[in-house]
Every structure is written in structure tokens, then in C-alpha cells.
């Protein structure tokens, strides 16, 4: 056995077992380690890499948990190359790299996750940018405050929290993804246990995997996570945190009931874990029965780490959001932010501050809700009328998406549906992207309306219907 290809140039930023895992995965993906090939014995590889045996043991366990290896008792650990989801994820990502600008206009985009730029008044934003530069000059372009621009933090507190916070509690970040990453670096160590919703946002899964956490899943129901499933996990494991999207969860669109939020907050105190609340799209509530009460607003024991992005609903390019962390870990989180990028764009922070202060934010959100309510209602009607008995779904009452289940009488899975739709210039999000075990998502797909006007929605759903009809078992 040639060990030369297993050589790793270690750095200090990541645990060694994770670096070994990542290197072996690349070797398997590239074909340098063949499918079914036996990996080096633990002791032999540990001597070659000058690490202890436990490091190799942890690496092999990680490879097994991610589907890159299988252990045969009494024989050793063997490479496992076949993973259809890996190819799908790559193809899905590559689709949006290749299709952009004018090309995207030729597609019906049901996969987009951000607000449509046609609703955004660039003149208002241009006005505040110019005012900031006239007012602050070169200071508008200089990183000055670790926590973020004080004016923006004050206005976040005033307009979104009714001045109930101290502005020192608010940390400006470069979007929700960075917020999740910062929190993970601050509180999660290798082999810590993290609970996530099943299914969940794959960007969060990536961050937790990178930190070397053990990811435990609890099923989603119509009003949030399955509490019995959740409690069972808590009984058997010591948990560091629970990651949740409290409103219009991605991808299911489900929203937590007030009763369920209160129960989870009690469990967090009882079992000593943090709730990482990703407040996804709570601005876009269309159903009057849904009331806005975040986990954070109900938190009396300082258990919630609240993350809010402006990027999804505002302009993705400005990459802004904010984070509120419990007092006990605030310093760790702030240090994690500094070690990540020192400070978020000063100009964009000042511009957003003025945008909120001048009333443009409220005006924009009201306009957005009005326009998206029309699309939401229209897509809901189209799914019911056109897809009929081929699918089932729950109406989320807000957000950007519908999460749809293909009925058992249709012999097509969501990955195949993705490719067939793509060939007919319709882009969807297959459910397998949102599950650790791809089999759980084979019969689900997500349809979004944020990037697609009503004239295209019906045509796109009719194309999906034809594909499903062709796969219907008569």
C-alpha cells in the first residue's frame, strides 16, 4: 500500500482529524482512492502522519458518517465512492454559476431564495449612499467599530426591538451565514452535539460539519419540531445547541407555534443548551393567524442566540445582518467575529442605517408584502389546480416557498425531477439537498416564487405537471 498520497500539510485552523478526513474525501472523489479500496490500518497511517491513533479513528468515523467509507468488522475500513447526492449538489450549484443575467431570463426560476430586484427602488438607496458620503466623507469607508456602526445598532434597537435591548448587545455581521459560522466557532468544539431540524438549511449543516460537530436530527411537523423526538434526543445526549428557523423554515415553510416555542425554551434551561434562532423571513407574514413572536422575544433565561439577515429580503449584495447573543458567551462571539473579518462594510452599514431611519425600509417591506402576497396566492392556486392529486403540500402562510411532496402513485424522485425540469428550462430545488440521508428527501421538492412573475408561474407548473404525469402509475 502506497502511503505517499495520504500526506497532509497540517494547519492550525482546523483539527487534524478533520484535515485528514477532508484530504481522503478529495482522494476518493478524484479517483486516486478507488471505490471499495481498503484504507491504511489505523496504526500504520498514524505513524506515517505523526499523529496519535485516536486522530485516525476519529477521521475514519467521520468518513463513515458522511458516506465516504464503510467499516467491515475484523477486516478494516474501505472507501465508498458512490454518493448520488454529491453529484446532484455539484450540478445544482453549477447550474446557477452558469445561468445568470440574461440567460436566467430564459428560465423559469423556482429555486431562487432572495427577493426580486425589480421591487427594490434603487433611487432611494442611491440617495442614502450619497447622503452618507456627503455627511461622513472618508470615514464612511473606514472600519471603525468592532460591534458595528453605532447608528445602525441604535436604529435596529429602536425600530425592530422597541428599545428593549442595549446597543452593546447587537453585533453587526455579514449576513446569516456568517452569523451561524461565528456562533459555531464561538461555542462548538469537535464532537459537540448539535440538534437541527429535519430537513434544514444546508448552509447550516455545512458549518456544523466543518466544526466537527455530531449532528442530530429531529423531524419537522406543521407547527415546528416534533417535541417527542426532540425530548428523546435530549434524554440520550448532552446538547450544545439547537439550530432553528422559527418562521417559514427553509425548506418546509413551517412556522413554530407559540406553545412549542415556550416548551423548547423551558427545555433549553432544563438541559443547558443554546437555541440558535435564524429569523429567516418573518417580515413576510401573509396569514393573519400567524403572529410574530421570536424565541428571543420570549427568552427570560438568556438561552437564545438570535441571528437576522437583511440580505435575503433586501439586497443580497450588501451582505448585512445582526446577531444578539446571551451575556455568558457575548465576548466569545465578539472575538469570533473579529477573528473572522474584523468588521463588516462600514459604507453599507451607514447606508442601511439611514435607509431605516428615513422610513424607506418600512415602505419597502410593505410594498414587498403586497407584491409577494399576490404571487403566493397565485402559486398556491396553480399547485392545487394543475398538480392536483399528484402532490400534497401545506400552505406556509408567508415566506418565499412551497414545500411539496410527490404522491406515491408517481414513480419519479426529486433528483430526477430536477434534471428533467432543467432540460425544459424550469429550475426547482430537489428535497434531497436538505437531508443528511438523501432517501428522506426523494419525494420532496421546493418551489419558490420570489424570482418568478405570475405569467411564468403557471407555465412552469404546467411543465412540472407534464413530467409528473409521464411518471404516473396507471
Automatic annotation (TrEMBL):
<dbReference type="GO" id="GO:0008483">
    <property type="term" value="F:transaminase activity"/>
</dbReference>
<dbReference type="GO" id="GO:0003677">
    <property type="term" value="F:DNA binding"/>
</dbReference>
<keyword id="KW-0032">Aminotransferase</keyword>
<dbReference type="InterPro" id="IPR015421">
    <property type="entry name" value="PyrdxlP-dep_Trfase_major"/>
</dbReference>
<dbReference type="Pfam" id="PF00155">
    <property type="entry name" value="Aminotran_1_2"/>
</dbReference>
<feature type="domain" description="HTH gntR-type">
    <location>
        <begin position="14"/>
        <end position="82"/>
    </location>
</feature>
<comment type="similarity">
    <text>In the C-terminal section; belongs to the class-I pyridoxal-phosphate-dependent aminotransferase family.</text>
</comment>
<dbReference type="GO" id="GO:0030170">
    <property type="term" value="F:pyridoxal phosphate binding"/>
</dbReference>
<dbReference type="InterPro" id="IPR036388">
    <property type="entry name" value="WH-like_DNA-bd_sf"/>
</dbReference>
<dbReference type="InterPro" id="IPR000524">
    <property type="entry name" value="Tscrpt_reg_HTH_GntR"/>
</dbReference>
<dbReference type="InterPro" id="IPR004839">
    <property type="entry name" value="Aminotransferase_I/II_large"/>
</dbReference>
<dbReference type="Pfam" id="PF00392">
    <property type="entry name" value="GntR"/>
</dbReference>
<dbReference type="InterPro" id="IPR015422">
    <property type="entry name" value="PyrdxlP-dep_Trfase_small"/>
</dbReference>
<keyword id="KW-0238">DNA-binding</keyword>
<dbReference type="InterPro" id="IPR051446">
    <property type="entry name" value="HTH_trans_reg/aminotransferase"/>
</dbReference>
<keyword id="KW-0663">Pyridoxal phosphate</keyword>
<dbReference type="GO" id="GO:0003700">
    <property type="term" value="F:DNA-binding transcription factor activity"/>
</dbReference>
<dbReference type="InterPro" id="IPR015424">
    <property type="entry name" value="PyrdxlP-dep_Trfase"/>
</dbReference>
<keyword id="KW-0804">Transcription</keyword>
<keyword id="KW-0808">Transferase</keyword>
<keyword id="KW-0805">Transcription regulation</keyword>
<protein>
    <submittedName>
        <fullName>Transcriptional regulator with HTH domain and aminotransferase domain</fullName>
    </submittedName>
</protein>
<dbReference type="InterPro" id="IPR036390">
    <property type="entry name" value="WH_DNA-bd_sf"/>
</dbReference>
Amino acid at each position: 500500500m502506497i502511503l505517499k498520497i495520504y500526506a497532509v500539510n497540517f494547519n492550525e485552523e482546523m483539527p487534524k482529524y478533520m484535515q485528514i478526513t477532508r484530504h481522503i474525501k478529495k482522494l476518493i472523489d478524484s479517483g486516486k482512492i478507488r471505490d471499495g479500496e481498503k484504507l491504511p490500518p489505523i496504526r500504520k497511517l498514524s505513524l506515517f502522519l505523526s499523529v496519535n491513533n485516536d486522530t485516525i479513528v476519529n477521521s475514519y468515523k467521520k468518513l463513515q458518517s458522511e458516506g465516504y467509507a464503510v467499516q467491515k468488522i475484523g477486516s478494516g475500513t474501505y472507501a465508498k465512492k458512490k454518493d448520488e447526492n454529491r453529484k446532484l449538489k455539484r450540478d445544482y450549484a453549477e447550474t446557477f454559476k452558469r445561468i445568470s443575467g440574461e440567460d436566467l431570463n430564459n428560465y423559469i426560476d423556482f429555486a431562487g431564495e432572495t427577493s426580486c430586484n425589480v421591487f427594490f427602488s434603487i433611487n432611494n438607496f442611491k440617495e442614502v449612499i450619497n447622503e452618507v458620503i456627503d455627511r461622513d466623507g472618508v470615514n464612511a469607508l473606514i472600519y471603525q467599530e468592532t460591534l458595528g456602526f453605532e447608528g445602525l445598532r441604535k436604529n435596529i434597537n429602536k425600530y425592530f426591538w422597541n428599545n428593549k435591548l442595549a446597543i452593546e448587545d447587537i453585533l453587526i455581521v455579514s449576513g446569516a451565514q456568517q452569523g451561524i459560522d461565528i456562533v459555531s466557532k464561538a461555542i462548538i468544539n469537535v464532537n459537540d452535539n448539535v440538534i437541527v431540524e429535519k430537513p434544514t438549511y444546508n448552509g447550516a449543516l455545512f458549518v456544523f460539519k466543518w466544526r466537527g460537530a455530531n449532528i442530530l436530527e429531529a423531524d419537522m411537523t406543521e407547527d415546528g419540531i416534533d417535541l417527542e423526538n426532540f425530548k428523546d434526543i435530549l434524554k440520550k445526549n448532552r446538547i450544545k445547541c439547537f439550530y432553528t428557523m422559527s418562521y417559514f423554515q427553509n425548506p418546509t415553510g413551517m412556522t413554530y407555534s407559540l406553545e412549542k416555542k415556550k416548551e423548547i425554551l423551558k427545555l433549553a434551561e432544563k438541559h443547558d443548551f443554546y437555541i440558535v434562532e435564524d429569523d429567516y423571513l418573518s417580515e413576510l407574514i401573509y396569514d393573519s393567524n400567524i403572529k410574530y413572536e421570536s424565541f428571543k422575544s420570549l427568552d427570560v433565561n438568556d438561552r437564545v442566540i438570535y441571528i437576522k439577515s437583511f440580505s435575503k429580503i433586501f439586497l443580497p449584495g450588501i451582505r448585512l445582518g445582526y446577531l444578539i447573543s446571551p451575556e455568558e458567551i457575548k465576548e466569545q462571539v465578539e472575538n469570533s467575529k473579529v477573528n473572522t473579518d474584523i468588521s463588516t462594510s462600514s459604507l453599507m452599514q451607514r447606508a442601511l442605517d439611514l435607509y431605516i431611519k428615513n422610513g424607506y425600509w418600512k415602505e419597502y417591506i410593505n410594498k414587498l408584502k403586497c407584491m409577494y402576497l399576490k404571487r403566493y396566492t397565485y402559486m398556491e392556486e396553480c399547485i392545487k389546480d394543475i398538480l392536483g392529486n399528484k402532490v400534497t403540500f401545506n400552505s406556509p402562510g408567508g415566506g418565499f416557498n412551497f414545500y411539496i411532496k410527490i404522491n406515491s402513485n408517481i414513480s419519479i424522485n426529486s433528483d430526477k425531477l430536477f434534471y428533467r425540469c432543467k432540460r425544459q428550462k424550469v429550475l426547482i430545488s430537489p428535497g434531497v439537498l436538505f437531508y443528511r440521508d438523501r432517501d428522506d428527501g426523494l419525494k420532496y421538492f421546493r418551489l419558490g416564487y420570489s424570482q418568478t412573475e405570475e405569467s411564468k408561474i403557471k407555465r412552469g407548473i404546467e411543465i412540472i405537471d407534464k413530467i409528473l404525469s409521464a411518471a404516473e402509475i396507471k
